[in-house]
Structure prediction request, 499 residues.
Amino acid sequence: MKDEKTNRVKTVVILMTAILVLMSMLPAMVSAQTTGDININEIMYDPSTEQGRDTNMEWLELYNNDTVPINISEWRIDDKLISDKVMQPGDYVVLARNKTAFEDYYGALPCSVIDVTLGLKNDPGDTIALCNSTGAEVDNVTYNASWGADGNGKTLERNAKGVWKESLADGGTPCKLNSVTVVVPYSPWLPPMIYTSNITVDAMNPENVGKNATTMFFTATGVIDNESYYVFNISKPTDTTKSYISMDDENEDYLKKRAVREVPGREISNLTFDPALVIRDFPLWVGKTWTSTSNVTGIIVNETGSEIQINSTAVVAGKVTRDVVTVPLGTFRCLLFENNISYEVAGVPTSNVRKFWKSTQNNKPLVPKLQIYRNGNLVEEFELIEAISPTYANESNNNTTINVTKGRYMVISFETASPGSTGYWWVVAELDEQVLRQVGDIVFMQDYVPEPGLVGVPGKQIATFEVVGAGNATINMVYRSPGGTVEDTFTLNVTASDV
Prediction:
């Protein structure tokens, strides 16, 4: 097994690292070249029934992957002439068989649409070639039926590795980042992280501005109606907010069950969502949107101190975009996850928006910035100062001693085959709970997303622990077969200090 950080990169961070590379912006230059790095980027070979299976709806997209403007005037696609156009770095251009039909369906888009009398045959072996004004081939695509996008409303998109995939977005992604370029798959586990942030906006408690907040992601669990949930906790000098989150492995969603806000000695809001709201609908990509509906019940304390009973329909609208933010810790290219949860309070429609900027640094998953809006007004903002990741261990640490710090977290991972196909699980056999407390269940994370029908994908079983006290402790774990036979053992000695 690789070292600790490499292990985590493979299971948690590698996709986010790719995201950062793909988000870099290309500088524009002054004059246009007549040849350069132009790619065939997306193809609508076979329009859907909704589009009337009309060949007029066929189109393809070009992308300027060069660092300078490229003049594609007099270029040819499928041996058809392309009219005058200069593509700036990072530009998209749609070549449509029928520009009017295309724009009627897709509406206004932020890139040029050019009429070209395409003849996309979608026959195996059919090749489309892009040639520059001298006749030299710049790019080509040979159609393969196994790629998909056969009349289902999807396009073929080129991913970050240059591989063609069926689009995740219905109708494709003309004039914007391909849905298959940055794909964040579902994960049943996230590393416990502790963030220290500067409070830059606090409309309810202005005295907090300039002070620090502590945000704890997935560092604790709570029980609601005999079900276990991860707790996402934000602590400020004046109050604390807790969100109770669960993982829906079947539908590949992150769910929000409850939100609680407390001041010393009193809850000022306590809302429960039934069924739990979908706050992340995987797989995620730039441009992904989703909605979810639930019944919300509970209480909110108003400005006069009176409790308002809540019993309303809550609707969450989620979306993914990308952004670059600068915070005290540095400047980061991020995916921006936004959730708008709306419901009625005393008969008045209320909108609550949370924006999370997510990125990485030194293999740590980060939330550089967090904003909360109420009815369109920014009421809270946090900017990251410090991120503390857990201490990692794996099989190579068997029968060794590891040093940890009280108040922080430790993660142990084991390379295994999928327990879903083998039934073999690692379990904690012995634990000194004066020093360590297990957080959540042991989970399995596959190393890659398998092709349909493929079972037994290798991955890692992961156990998470909170360091609750100083001292020396031993963790004993066993690897059990479905029948309960111990197939392997793991022992780790832990020395926990106060600081």
Q: What stands out?
A: The first helix runs from residue 4 to 22.
